[in-house]
Amino acid sequence: MPGARRSLASPVVSGVLCPCGSPRAAGAAPGPGTEGGSGGSASPCGRSVCEASEQDRRLRALFQKLDVNRDGALCIHDLAVGLGRLGLHRTELDLLKIVKAGDKDLDGQLDFEEFVHYLQDHEKKLRLVFKSLDKKNDGRIDAQEIVQSLRDLGVKISEQQAEKILKRIRTGHFWGPVTYMDKNGTMTIDWNEWRDYHLLHPVENIPEIILYWKHSTIFDVGENLTVPDEFTVEERQTGMWWRHLVAGGGAGAVSRTCTAPLDRLKVLMQVHASRSNNMCIVGGFTQMIREGGPRSLWRGNGINVLKIAPESAIKFMAYEQIKRFIGTDQEMLRIHERLLAGSLAGAIAQSSIYPMEVLKTRMALRKTGQYSGMLDCAKNILSKEGMAAFYKGYIPNMLGIIPYAGIDLAVYETLKNAWLQRYAVNSADPGVFVLLACGTISSTCGQLASYPLALVRTRMQAQASVEGAPEVTMRGLFKHILKTEGAFGLYRGLAPNFMKVIPAVSISYVVYENLKMTLGVQSR
């Protein structure tokens, strides 16, 4: 009857999962601490652990209701018809997102196992969203909390409008039924009402995940080839994004300065080390100090720090423009979209500041008294070698962006999602050590994958600074190294490079957090 309140989800849907995200059997008794509770083994939410057979029966009952054509898999048509029969009306785009989210084997449909995994993963995301909205932490969402949450995201509404949202939400097509989230008319939404309403509706763009899991902005290991971070609508509209970038740039400057001796040793070993000149770490430091004193350990650091600002700014602007060109307005892009946009933005930024990369290598390799400074080095290269010298090693540098950015992003997202799935119950905040560990592991994997290209790039940049070095191409240099030094020759300098990752990540994080507070960036 018109105006009667009804749940969006039928009892079949709402009874499938426990609030903790664990599958629940029909008629499972509440656990200790709940109404009618009894002793025994309990799930994380306090309910009794479900029997496997009953759990399977319940899930299969829902799956069979949705499997309209009885072929053992759910396609978009099955979901549209099946959910419609249960009173859930979804748009075709929503249904496509559900299938894409759960389709592990990429066959365009969900089998029973994929469907179960989708429901479990989906409910964990729902709980994160519910917790982020529940500002008072009382297990309910009221009108004031909806107003505050939407304001945090840059959307201003009145409390009366928020109450209308609580009363009813019209979903699906305009001729679909009116469905209610606030089932008991209390002007609040508890977890069960929230879960029942959204269980089979795609959830994405979780601002809390974007907020806590910054990566490229925080961690600087000397190679600015990572995919740029996303920013929430709130961060964009309040101007916090540029403060994050400034804090990240300052952190990178301090981090690179602190690890500059290891970075210069890496460059020396990449260019000069060979089978006949087996340079070790202690010997390399001794040689640098003997030749130019302790200050020589920081040669090339000045230009390495100076290039942070233009490179970060160009990459961020290019990333935002490429996202618009791709045609997406999503707050959180899918991984392949982020990789595409991030790699192109990185290529644009690297192309713009690449002469500074060549200068950095030449300054790191210079001998005492060879150049009076960066400008003198640039003039010397221009007069003796021409403008083309500023783009030596450009091709291997561009080729190195994809394996570095791709593997770094893939590893970081894998670790992030694994942590979110396993440990994110009340918040998406991973804490300092988890964030540092994920950043360190992903950066190390990215560097390992792209290191041979980075070594060839450095040798090509340094060609004119090494007496008697022949002009060779990238392909010719690869062949020469493999022939004279073997595959190990492509990894010269890897030890000092890895030695600087942990201190670089740790220093950049600490400095970033302090600069963030100084600039007035607030973390929720």
UniProtKB/TrEMBL annotation:
<dbReference type="InterPro" id="IPR018247">
    <property type="entry name" value="EF_Hand_1_Ca_BS"/>
</dbReference>
<keyword id="KW-0677">Repeat</keyword>
<dbReference type="InterPro" id="IPR018108">
    <property type="entry name" value="MCP_transmembrane"/>
</dbReference>
<feature type="repeat" description="Solcar">
    <location>
        <begin position="239"/>
        <end position="325"/>
    </location>
</feature>
<feature type="region of interest" description="Disordered">
    <location>
        <begin position="27"/>
        <end position="48"/>
    </location>
</feature>
<feature type="repeat" description="Solcar">
    <location>
        <begin position="333"/>
        <end position="418"/>
    </location>
</feature>
<feature type="domain" description="EF-hand">
    <location>
        <begin position="54"/>
        <end position="89"/>
    </location>
</feature>
<keyword id="KW-0479">Metal-binding</keyword>
<keyword id="KW-0106">Calcium</keyword>
<dbReference type="InterPro" id="IPR002167">
    <property type="entry name" value="GDC-like"/>
</dbReference>
<feature type="repeat" description="Solcar">
    <location>
        <begin position="430"/>
        <end position="518"/>
    </location>
</feature>
<keyword id="KW-1133">Transmembrane helix</keyword>
<dbReference type="InterPro" id="IPR002067">
    <property type="entry name" value="MCP"/>
</dbReference>
<keyword id="KW-0812">Transmembrane</keyword>
<feature type="domain" description="EF-hand">
    <location>
        <begin position="121"/>
        <end position="156"/>
    </location>
</feature>
<dbReference type="Pfam" id="PF13499">
    <property type="entry name" value="EF-hand_7"/>
</dbReference>
<dbReference type="GO" id="GO:0055085">
    <property type="term" value="P:transmembrane transport"/>
</dbReference>
<dbReference type="InterPro" id="IPR023395">
    <property type="entry name" value="MCP_dom_sf"/>
</dbReference>
<protein>
    <recommendedName>
        <fullName>Solute carrier family 25 member 25</fullName>
    </recommendedName>
</protein>
<dbReference type="GO" id="GO:0005743">
    <property type="term" value="C:mitochondrial inner membrane"/>
</dbReference>
<keyword id="KW-0813">Transport</keyword>
<dbReference type="InterPro" id="IPR011992">
    <property type="entry name" value="EF-hand-dom_pair"/>
</dbReference>
<keyword id="KW-0999">Mitochondrion inner membrane</keyword>
<keyword id="KW-0496">Mitochondrion</keyword>
<dbReference type="GO" id="GO:0005509">
    <property type="term" value="F:calcium ion binding"/>
</dbReference>
<dbReference type="Pfam" id="PF00153">
    <property type="entry name" value="Mito_carr"/>
</dbReference>
<dbReference type="InterPro" id="IPR002048">
    <property type="entry name" value="EF_hand_dom"/>
</dbReference>
<keyword id="KW-0472">Membrane</keyword>
<comment type="similarity">
    <text>Belongs to the mitochondrial carrier (TC 2.A.29) family.</text>
</comment>
